[in-house]
C-alpha cells in the first residue's frame, strides 16, 4: 500500500511499507548520507544502504542547535551537494533533526525517513513539520518541508521498549479521537480493553494502525500544510502535553496522553464533550499504561528518578517535588506554545469522538484548569 501527500508546489511525499533492507533500491548510496543514533545503528546497521552514516545523540538531545551544527559539519566534510539525499533512520527526534538539517542545507536538499518507532510511523515522519528545541522550548525552530519518501517497516518495532511503544499508541489514539468511526473502532479492538496482559498488535494489525493514522494525517495536511486552520486539530493534547513534557521530561506520547485527557476534561467542563466519551478515551489510554490525567503523569514522572532529579535541579530546589510545584511548571510552560492569539490559546477541543474543533480559550483559564484538574 502506498499513500501520497502533496505538499506546497505539488511536492509529493510517498509513504510506503517495506523492509528497511530494501531501501538501498530507492536511494543512490553514492549521493546519500544516513543520519541515525548509536542504538539504531547497532541493532539495524546491517540493513543500512552502503553510504556514510552520521550518529546523532539519542532521544530529545538530538533536537538541539549543537546537534544541528555537528550535522552541518559532517555534511560539509562529506561534500553533500544539491543533488544529495539525507536519509533519517530513527525515531521522531532523529527525523526532526535530519529533516530540519536537510531542508535548510544549501537552502534545501531532498530527504527521506525510515522511522523506527511507532510514534515516528504514525505521526512524526508524516506531514512535513521538522522541529528543533530552543532554550528548553519544544519545536521553537523548524521548517515545513516534506520528505521525498517514507519507508515504513513495522518489524523494526519488535526491539522497541514497552514504554516507547505505548508512547506511539498515544498519538494513534489522538488520531482516533479526531477521526472517530472505523479508526477508533480499530484502535479499540487492537487494545482489547478487557485483557489484563497487554499484548502488542500483530504485524498486520500494526500496518493497519500505521496506515490509518497516516491517512488521517495526510488528509488534513493536504488541506492545510502550514497549519493556518484545520491542521491545528492534530495538536489535540499538545497544548498541555508540551507543558507536561517540558516540565517532567516524560516521553512525548505519555505527555500527549495526559494532555489529551486534560483537553477532554476541559471540553466536558465547558459542556462540549459527553462524560461517557471521555471515559472511552481514558480507558484506551489507561489500557496502554499511559497517564490519563495530569496527576498520573506527575506520579509517573516522580517514579523516574533521573527526570525528577533533573527537574529538581532546574527548579533550583532540593525539596521533595510535590504536585503544585510541578503543576505550576506545566502551567508556566504552556504560553511558550506557538498556538496563541493574544491572551488566548487556540486549543483543539473534542466535541465528540470524531469531532474536534479549534477554540480560543483564555490562557489564564487553561492554566487554572491545569492546577485543579485530576
Ligand atoms: N515532526 C512532527 O510532526 C512530530 C510529530 C510528533 C512528534 N514529534 C517529535 O518526535 C519526538 C519523539 O519521537 P519518538 O517517540 O520516536 O522518540 P525518540 O526519537 O526520542 O526515540 C526514543 C528512543 O527510542 C530509541 N529507539 C528508536 N527506535 C528504536 C527501535 N526500533 N528499537 C529500540 N529502540 C529504539 C531511540 O534510540 C531513543 O533512545 C519528539 O521530539 C517530538 O516532538 C515530531
Structure description:
The protein is of the alpha/beta class. It is 46% helix and 19% strand. The chain contains 14 helices and twelve strands. It has helices at residues 38-44, 65-78, 92-104, 118-124, 162-179, 181-191, 203-223, 238-248, 252-269, 275-287, 294-302, 305-314, 323-333, 363-372; strands at residues 2-6, 12-17, 32-37, 53-56, 85-90, 110-115, 129-134, 137-144, 149-152, 340-341, 344-352, 355-362. The protein has a seven-stranded mixed sheet with strand order 1-2-9-6-5-3-4. α1 (38-44) links the parallel β3 (32-37) and β4 (53-56). α2 packs across α3 (92-104), α5 (162-179) packs across α7 and α8 (238-248) crosses α13. The protein is globular. It starts with a strand and ends with a helix. It binds nicotinamide-adenine-dinucleotide. Nicotinamide-adenine-dinucleotide is lined by residues 37, 39-40, 58-60, 63, 90-94, 96, 116-117, 119-120, 123-124, 127, 129-131, 138-139, 156, 159-160, 164, 167, 252.
Keywords, please?
374 residues, alpha/beta, 12 strands, 46% helix
**Structural class per helix/strand content?**
alpha/beta
Question: Which descriptor suits the 3D outline?
Answer: globular
Report the C-alpha radius of gyration, rounded. Answer: 20 Å
How are the strands of the largest sheet arranged?
A: 1-2-9-6-5-3-4
Main β-sheet description:
7 strands, mixed
Amino acid at each position: 500500500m502506498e499513500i501520497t501527500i502533496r505538499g506546497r508546489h505539488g511536492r509529493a511525499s510517498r509513504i510506503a511499507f517495506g523492509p528497511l533492507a530494501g531501501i538501498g533500491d530507492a536511494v543512490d548510496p553514492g549521493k546519500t548520507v544516513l543520519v541515525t543514533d548509536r542504538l539504531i545503528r547497532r541493532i539495524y546497521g546491517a540493513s543500512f544502504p552502503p553510504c556514510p552514516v552520521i550518529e546523532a545523540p539519542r532521544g530529545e538531545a538530538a533536537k538541539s542547535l549543537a546537534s544541528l551544527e555537528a550535522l552541518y559539519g559532517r555534511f560539509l566534510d562529506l561534500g553533500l551537494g544539491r543533488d544529495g539525499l539525507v536519509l533519517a533512520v530513527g525515531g521522531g527526534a532523529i527525523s526532526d533533526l535530519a529533516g530540519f538539517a536537510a531542508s535548510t542545507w544549501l537552502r534545501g536538499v531532498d530527504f527521506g525517513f525510515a522511522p523506527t518507532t511507532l510514534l515516528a510511523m504514525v505521526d512524526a515522519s508524516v506531514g512535513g513539520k521538522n522541529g528543533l528545541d530552543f532554550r528548553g522550548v519544544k519545536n521553537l525552530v523548524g521548517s515545513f518541508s516534506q520528505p521525498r519518501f517514507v519507508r515504513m517497516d513495522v518489524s523494526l518495532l519488535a526491539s522497541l521498549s514497552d514504554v516507547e511503544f505505548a508512547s506511539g499508541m498515544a498519538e494513534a489514539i489522538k488520531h482516533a479521537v479526531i477521526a472517530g468511526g472505523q479508526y477508533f473502532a480499530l484502535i479499540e479492538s487492537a487494545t482489547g480493553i478487557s485483557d489484563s496482559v497487554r499484548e502488542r498488535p500483530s504485524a498486520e494489525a500494526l500496518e493497519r494502525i500505521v496506515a490509518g493514522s497516516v491517512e488521517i494525517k495526510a488528509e488534513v495536511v493536504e488541506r492545510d500544510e502550514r497549519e493556518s486552520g484545520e491542521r491545528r486539530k492534530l495538536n489535540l493534547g499538545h497544548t498541555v502535553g508540551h507543558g507536561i513534557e517540558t516540565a517532567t521530561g516524560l516521553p512525548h506520547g505519555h505527555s500527549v496522553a495526559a494532555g489529551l485527557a486534560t483537553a477532554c476534561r476541559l471540553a466536558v467542563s465547558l459542556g462540549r464533550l459527553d462524560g461517557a466519551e471521555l471515559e472511552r478515551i481514558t480507558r484506551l489510554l489507561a489500557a496502554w499504561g499511559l497517564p490519563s490525567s495530569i496527576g498520573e503523569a506527575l506520579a509517573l514522572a516522580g517514579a523516574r528518578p533521573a527526570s525528577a532529579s533533573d527537574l529538581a535541579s532546574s527548579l533550583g530546589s532540593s525539596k521533595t517535588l510535590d504536585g503544585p510545584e510541578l503543576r505550576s511548571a506545566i502551567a508556566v510552560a504552556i504560553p511558550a506554545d506557538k498556538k496563541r492569539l493574544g491572551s488566548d490559546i487556540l486549543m483543539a477541543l473534542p466535541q465528540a469522538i470524531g469531532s474536534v474543533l479549534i477554540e480560543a480559550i483564555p490562557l489564564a483559564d487553561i492554566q487554572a484548569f491545569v492546577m485543579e484538574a485530576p
